Amino acid sequence: MSNPQPLEEEAYDMSGARLALTLCVTKAREGSQADLDALESMFQQLRFESTMKKDPTAQQFYEELEKFQQAIDAREDFVSCAFVVLMAHGLEGRLKGEDGKMVDLEDLFQVLNNKNCRGLRARPKVYIVQACRGEQRDPGEPIGGEDLVMIAKSSPETIPTYTDTLHVYSTVEGYIAYRHDQEGSYFIQTLVDVFMNRRGPILELLTEVTRRMAEEELFQEGKPRKVNPEIYSTLRKRLYLQ
């Protein structure tokens, strides 16, 4: 009986341009500047061309994403990867603009999908969302068969609309996200530290982010709280930033 062949590791080609767009509402969100400073350092180290816009309205969230998409599609050089960082007050599936109006996250995510952004087709798109997703608070809990996945054979000439995308939320559905008035959000600060100082595929790095956040005990109004990010991935290959 022959030994099974090891899976060949395939990684995204990161030799081209790396682009980042950060949209951050700072109004009534003390500590936001610390997050912006940390992200700027991270993008500089990881060789991203970074654009940041403060205090977008709900409409401007969408307009800035559309401008980003149009600029990507207009480029003549090869674009390897795009990061989009969205920071604001929010509820599940929605963000609040500087004007107090809401924008649907799904509308923002669709702008760069494989249908709408040719320049990023089959290339990784990473969304970092620092926002509350509800009002619930997690006090934590004491610590007290493998699924079979059927993979359909597909034509190499086509690609699903929603592949090559990674969504990273600062908290799980229904729960609030925490931010320090001076030091910024624990999520962004932890993510930046891991991305700048650790090497490996991005999903492994995000596992480390989750581990660190899960071990930390935060205090709100004198009560201990727990928080962890939530990650959704349709990446088809390994994504290395370093």
Can you characterise this structure?
The protein has 242 residues and is of the alpha/beta class. It has a single domain, classed as 3-Layer(aba) Sandwich (Rossmann fold). Helices cover 26% and strands 23% of the residues. The chain has five helices and 13 strands. The protein has helices spanning 32-45, 58-74, 105-110, 186-197, 202-215; strands at 17-24, 49-54, 79-87, 90-91, 94-96, 102-104, 125-130, 165-169, 179-180, 184-185, 218-220, 223-225, 230-233. The chain has a six-stranded mixed sheet, sandwiched between helices. Strands 4-5-6 form a three-stranded antiparallel sheet. It has a two-stranded antiparallel sheet with strand order 9-10. A hairpin with a 2-residue loop joins strand 11 and strand 12 (223-225). Helix 1 (32-45) runs parallel beside helix 4 (186-197) and helix 4 packs across helix 5. The longest helix is centred in the first third of the chain and has 17 residues, at 58-74. It is globular and about 55 Å long. The protein starts with 16 loop residues before the first strand and ends in a 9-residue tail after the last strand. Mean pLDDT is 91; it is low at 145-152.
**CATH-level-2 architecture:** 3-Layer(aba) Sandwich
Within the largest sheet, what's the order of strands?
2-1-3-7-8-13
The structural domain count equals 1
DSSP helix fraction? 25-40%
Count of helical stretches = 5
Order of helices and strands: EHEHEEEEHEEEEHHEEE
CATH class: Alpha Beta
Uncertain residue segments = 145-152
Q: Based on DSSP secondary structure assignment, what is the total number of beta strands?
A: 13
Radius of gyration: 19 Å
- Do you know the CATH topology? Rossmann fold
Task: Outline the biggest β-sheet.
Answer: 6 strands, mixed
The rounded distance between the terminal residues' Cα atoms is 40 Å
Derived from helix and strand composition plus strand pairing, the structural class reads alpha/beta
Task: Please tell me what the overall shape is.
Answer: globular
Kindly report the average pLDDT value: 91
Beta-strand content bin: 15-25%
Protein name: Caspase-14
GO molecular function: cysteine-type endopeptidase activity
Pfam families: Peptidase_C14 (PF00656)
Keywords: Cytoplasm, Differentiation, Hydrolase, Nucleus, Protease, Thiol protease, Zymogen
